[in-house]
Amino acid sequence: MVRHLGMTSVPVKQSVHKSTVRRVRPRRDFAAMEERRMRAADMFEQGVGPAEIARQVGVSHQIVSDWRAAWRRSGREGLRAVLLQECGPGRLTLGGRVDVMPAL
Description:
Arc Repressor Mutant, subunit A; two-stranded antiparallel ribbon; two-stranded antiparallel sheet
């Protein structure tokens, strides 16, 4: 059985004699993700560099650079979580439900 960080092992039966393990990705914790971005915003305000922020928050320096660009454009609001609302089977939009019937 191979284990990967952040993955949960779930046995999957493929035949009568063999079973393999399927990795299931855990659900994302959006509140924890936003908390990381807010910690990074605190550090941006203190003048801490991207590499140090990446080490302390536990993400790559490229992610921190993306966050910094959003922070410079929109401040802390630019780092807040954007909630997606369902709009039908398999469709998501930022603003809510989109009426597609007139287009048909």
